[in-house]
Structure formats: C-alpha cells, structure tokens
Amino acid sequence: NKDYLELRASEIGSYRWIGFNCKYEFFQDAELRRALTMAVDMNSAVEAIFKNDAGVTLAKRAYGPISYERPGGDEERFKAACIEYDPKEAEKLLDELGWKKGSAGIRAKDGQKLSINWLTYPTRLEQPKLAEYAQATLKDIGIDVVVNNTSDHMTIAKSGDFDVYVSSTTTAPTGDPEYFFTSTVTGAKNYGKYQNEEVTKLTDQLHQTFDKDERAKLAVELQQDILDDDAFFFVSHLNMGIVTKSNVTGMAAHPCDYYEITAELDVE
Questions:
Q1: pTM of the model
Q2: Cα separation, 170 vs 177, whole angstroms
Q3: Of 215, 202, 225, 234, whose CA–CA distance to 176 is shortest?
C-alpha cells in the first residue's frame, strides 16, 4: 500500500534558549544571572511544555548550544556544568546580594524593585508558555516578571528594550559548531550585548582553525566559558519527524538542516 505513511525521526539542531540583557544594570551582575537560572526548573519545563496529547515529549533537555551528536557536543560535561534547579539556594543568593522581599513578596534593593521584562513571541507556541512558566516560578522567590509576547520581537530585541529574551535558533545548521558563537555570542545576533574577552579570543581562534578535532575542542571550551559565566541558559532541542509514503526510499532524518534531500532519495 503506497499510501501507508512512515515516520522517520531525529534530534535536530533547533534550540530553545534564554539570554540576558547584559546592558541591564541588574544583569551585569553574574551572581544575579546565576540566581535566576537556578530558580527555573528547566527539566520540568521541558516535560510540561513539549509533551503532546499522546504523552510523548517532543524535545530533549539541552545543556549547551551544540548537539551531543556533533563535533563540540559533550552531553555529560555540560550537564555537569549546568546549574541545578535549587530555589532555596537562589533565595539565599538573592538575600546575600541585598535583594530583600518586601510586604508584597517582591524583592527590592536600594528602593528599586526586582522586576524584569521577558521578551517572547507567539509564532513558536512553546515560547510564551515558557515565559509564563518562568513568571510563575520566579514569583515564588520574589522576582516580578512582565511578559512581552509580541510578533515584533526582533525589532525590540535589536533595540535592546528587554531584560530577558528567548530564542529558537538553529545553532549549527551545517553541523559545524562555529555558527552559534560568531552569530549569537559575539556577532550581530548578540542582542544582550554579552562581552567576555576570553570568549571573543576563542571565537576568533575557532574561525581561523581548520582541523576538525581542534575546532571541536575549541567549541567545548567556548561552551564551558559561557556556561560558567551564566550568560545564556539552554532549554531544549527538538526531535524532528519526517513523514513519507512507504514507497519513498533513501530518506533519513538528519540532525543538520540541509541533508535530508540527497542523491539516495528516490520514489519507487
């Protein structure tokens, strides 16, 4: 029966991640970025937001920007490097930083309320859900989150009129690890104006290195640096399904964006 459908699935490089506006005076403090990261349970968020009606979770928790299956990917290392969900420790850290809860339960310091503008957009249905999840979670520890869910998010991101922003990005569209660092961490898509001299130096070195193994090592170092700096935190990457008729041969779901259509593809 040629109408019988087959499903081929693969992990893909489309990542959901969160970045801080490092021009925002609060988030120039790496310890405050750490407290916020510690206060959002990303494992539970992925389970809650990406589960379909059949109870299948269509995404996998991400610990860094590069797929575990590609050069520069190291699941165990980055899983160990990521901050564990620990709201009590987050509250303790906020107290130590001088952010104290007021009568309404929202933290303030020197008369300024700890309120952050979370920029998201509606075209990726899970992104507003993630914002709402974080809003409820952070309220529990005294952080006020105002969600700006707008289709004009790119204009706002480029203007810098946000405190936290989310993105859905293909981090390694051809499988090579350089793209995310030259575009998003140090390049034109660095909307949060994150700066780190060591990261910039390693990114330049990566751009000028041609040996595949050396490039993978540099990518690992770069990911470690941005995780240590709490500059970004990574939520999930998706599992992609490709549905074809059963008479299609040579089709394999590939973890990179450009390799599904190959010379092996045929219709019998």
A1: 0.84
A2: 11
A3: 215
